[in-house]
From TrEMBL:
Protein name, entry field: Alpha-1,3/1,6-mannosyltransferase ALG2
Regions crossing the membrane: 428-448
Listed EC numbers: 2.4.1.132, 2.4.1.257
Glycosyl transferase family domain ranges (all copies): 211-370
Family stated for the protein in its record: Belongs to the glycosyltransferase group 1 family.
Pathway given in the UniProt record: Protein modification; protein glycosylation
Length: 450
């Protein structure tokens, strides 16, 4: 295996699922002996994964000095594209691109024409988490018109990559519908979880202090505070448990929370109001220490922006992981739960259909509160300990076989090798197309400036 020099380009290195994938891919390839450098337009040391700040990875920030992430809360996609272009131009002008043989780029494909045209030898892999234009609501006719050029641009620039990979078979099927003119058929490279840092599924970890649940069994939800994550379902389902069962359990809702993002702030507020409406007592903590002093009668505990160490701790001591998003592109949290030996209850759509085995590593149910409450009741109060341990063992074995960091890095390494093997006439054609795109873009920019 030849040593590769790989450059990663990612928009905002926060603590979401896409960022976790990028970090794991970079670390995995680095562990295989390759040289890895990761560039991003934003990385807050207080709001990123440990590997991005503890020296594990070479993380550098550029392309963030001209435009903010949005303008008065609007034009997010335009600003994101321009920030990536700014980052890419910086790398090209400083000669950084020429130091690498391969580029891993994800989320935004805007930079690909520049990379293709100004650095033809560099081979480009685009990782598609999900087509961006399918993630954007078009609430008005004006918004629909506004999105037309961006939707076309996404398809055009994505097709200029040497190879495209996606995070699940579900995403691949959506990709084929979204971009029918792209000749490449994406390969599936599943995201991963680290199998070495979470305890094996013995479910008896005497060295850990009591979880913030006062000895209660914990139902755990881990998601960013976004409406599409449908955290309401977990709260509404939990409220259907009998009062005595709620007295022996607690719902802990943890995940990414960024005060800069208005949706995070308003959705958390709405969830607190939902608890009040359903007669559930809630409390919010921003760190583990403060969570230990919440009132004993707290039914729902919100933990905001938890670090990796706290997340692993929560997973080790939870009795059930509830994963509420519908049509999730992949979903990394169920994998993290299974490697920790926690049964998973997830919506029966999207990525979880590929990761969870019904009745063996967890349960798949429609978004119906009564059905979710029934599974909560069974997992916490009706299953025998032996059955729970069997489910935990099967979950861990499945993750090691299919979803380990080593497996993902091996597959990505193979994709880079295949680019080298097949890049010929198609590369020339794509370079010409990229050049045309760059010329048109510069022409439009000049016309607007005039």
């Amino acid at each position: 295996m030849s040593r590769k020099r790989i450059l990663f380009i990612h928009p905002d290195l926060g603590i979401g699922g896409a960022e976790r994938l990028v970090i794991d891919a970079a670390v995995g390839l680095q562990q295989r002996g390759h040289t890895v450098t990761l560039y991003t337009s934003h990385c807050d040391q207080r709001h990123c994964f440990d590997e991005a700040r503890d020296g594990t990875l070479d993380v550098r920030v550029a392309g963030n000095t001209i435009l903010p992430p949005n303008l008065l809360g609007r034009f997010n996609i335009l600003c994101a594209i321009l920030r990536q272009v700014h980052l890419t131009l910086t790398l090209l002008l400083t000669g950084e691109i020429s130091k690498h043989d391969y580029i891993f780029i994800d989320q935004l494909s805007a930079a690909i024409p520049l990379l293709r045209f100004f650095s033809p030898p560099t081979k480009i892999l685009f990782y598609c988490h999900f087509p961006d234009y399918l993630l954007t609501a078009r609430a008005s006719f004006i918004k629909s018109l506004y999105r037309i050029p961006f939707d076309w641009f996404e398809g055009f620039t994505t097709g200029l990559a040497d190879t495209i990979v996606v995070n699940s078979a579900f995403t691949r099927s959506v990709f084929a519908t979204a971009f029918p003119r792209i000749g490449l058929v994406p390969r599936v490279v599943y995201p991963c979880v680290t199998t070495a840092t979470i305890a094996s599924p013995s479910r008896a970890i005497d060295s850990d202090p009591p979880l913030p649940g006062d000895g209660r069994k914990v139902i755990l939800s881990i998601n960013r505070f976004e409406r599409k994550k449908n955290i309401d379902l977990a709260i509404a389902s939990y409220s259907l448990l009998a009062r005595e069962q709620r007295g022996r359990s607690r719902l802990v809702i943890a995940g990414g929370y960024d005060a800069r993002v208005s949706e995070n702030v308003t959705y958390h507020s709405d969830l607190v109001m939902l608890c009040e409406k359903l007669g559930l007592r809630s409390a919010t903590s921003r760190n583990f220490i403060s969570s230990l002093s919440v009132p004993e009668d707290t039914d729902v505990l919100f933990l905001l922006s938890i670090p990796a160490t706290l997340k692993n701790y929560l997973l080790r001591t939870a009795s059930l992981l509830v994963y509420t998003p519908a049509q999730e592109h992949f979903g990394i949290v169920p994998l993290e739960a299974m490697i920790a030996g926690v049964p998973v209850l997830a919506h029966n759509s999207g990525g979880p259909l590929e990761t969870i085995e019904e009745g063996r590593t967890g349960w798949l149910r429609p978004a119906e509160g009564v059905q979710w409450a029934a599974v909560m009741r069974m997992a916490l109060f009706e299953m025998e300990e032996g059955a729970v341990l069997d489910m935990a063992t099967r979950g861990r074995e499945r993750i090691i076989e299919l979803f380990s960091r080593e497996k993902m890095a091996e597959r990505l390494d193979g994709e880079f090798d295949e680019i080298s093997d097949r890049r010929s006439i198609r590369g020339l054609v794509l370079t010409v197309l990229a050049g045309m795109g760059v010329v048109i873009g510069l022409g439009v920019a000049f016309a607007l400036r005039s």
